[in-house]
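Researcher: I'd like a structural prediction for the single chain below. Treat it as a standalone chain; there are no partners to consider.
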Amino acid sequence: MKIERLNENQLRFTVWTRDLPDEDFTIADLAGQTEKAEELIKYMMNKAREEFGFSFDEKPIVVEAIPVNKDCIVFLVTKVDEEEEEQDKFKYIEKLKKQAMEMAKSFKENGIKNEDDTVVDEVDKTPQPQDEKTGRLLPYMIYSSSDMENFVTAARVVKDFYDSDNTLYKKENDITYYLVVTHNRNSDDEFTYLCDTLKEFTEPYKFTYTTKYYFEEHYKKILDGDALQRLAEL
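Model: Treating it as a single chain, here is the predicted structure.
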């Protein structure tokens, strides 16, 4: 585990799989609001107090979990000025989310560093949603998984900012689920972060311009329009 003090009110924790207490822990567990995530965060708070004298008792905190890949997750922990948060809570929280997404983008482009500052991982950039036959850019991406829980975990990671249309399909007599995600109400950067997150827990599905319409006609629609939003509440 690597702990960095970014400023007087903010710490960054980089956690690798090898840092987890036992085999029951996974990076996917830590990406959502789970008991295991809370247990690790408490441990990190104690380490921060020991190494930096960084106390979390005085002010409330905001914790942003940034999955880098299946073996690494970054926590951005920020002390929140209670008065400032109450005056413009939405604006303040959105500022922190933007900072977390920019940090995630930097990790994707440049890799992450170990305690000795050596680059230990480099992650593929999110592919552009492009028609494989025509090269035409598409307004959506598709991801697949045979385990619904993978979509639930990803949904919990992005629930605070992603609100665009997305639909979950299932092929009859098949255990595989297909999620079509758009960014009609989110920015390009937010869509990139969404796709990076989904790629950590599910598989990008190769498709063409007509695939979405084929799903509409031949696949069973499980959740229409707000799949991730509803899964995040499970």
